[in-house]
Amino acid sequence: TEDGVLQVASFDDLMATKMKVVLQRAEAKDYRDVAAMVEAGVSLPHGLAAARAIFGPNFQPSESLKALVYFGDGDLKSLTAAEKNTLVEAVKTVRDLPKVVILSKELAGNIG
Fold first, then answer.
1. 111: number of CA atoms within 13 Å, CB side?
2. How does pLDDT run across 29-50, given as a tens digit for each residue?
């Protein structure tokens, strides 16, 4: 930015994006990112709810949950047992999704 301030997405935004991405491609890097965020305390249910808020009613959280525990596609066999376990256990805990409200459709205000 012009003022030299770095702008980054929140963990919630990143988790929401990953929930959509795992439906579009089966790449270990995305699953590793999700596992790392879960290990860091980022809420999977909140990420799913945020994805639904961002991507609309066509986004089906249940499909992301299924994808997160299926390791037969792409390079997902390269995930460690610990990463797989983190994902499986996180998916097992998902019940109801919280209500998520989009605060802004922009990362930052008008720049420039």
1. 10
2. 999 999 999 999 999 999 999 9
The total number of structural domains that make up the chain: 1
Rg of the chain, C-alpha, whole Å: 15
Structure tokens at 11: 């963990």
**Angular region, 18: left φ>0, alpha ψ -120 to 50, beta rest:** alpha
Print the domain residue range for 43.
11-92
DSSP string, 24-44: H---HHHHHHHHHHHHTT--H
What predicted TM-score, i.e. pTM, was given to this entire model?
0.87
- DSSP conformation class of 99: P
Q: Distances from the Cα of 26 to the Cαs of 45, 75, 106, in angstroms?
A: 20, 7, 28
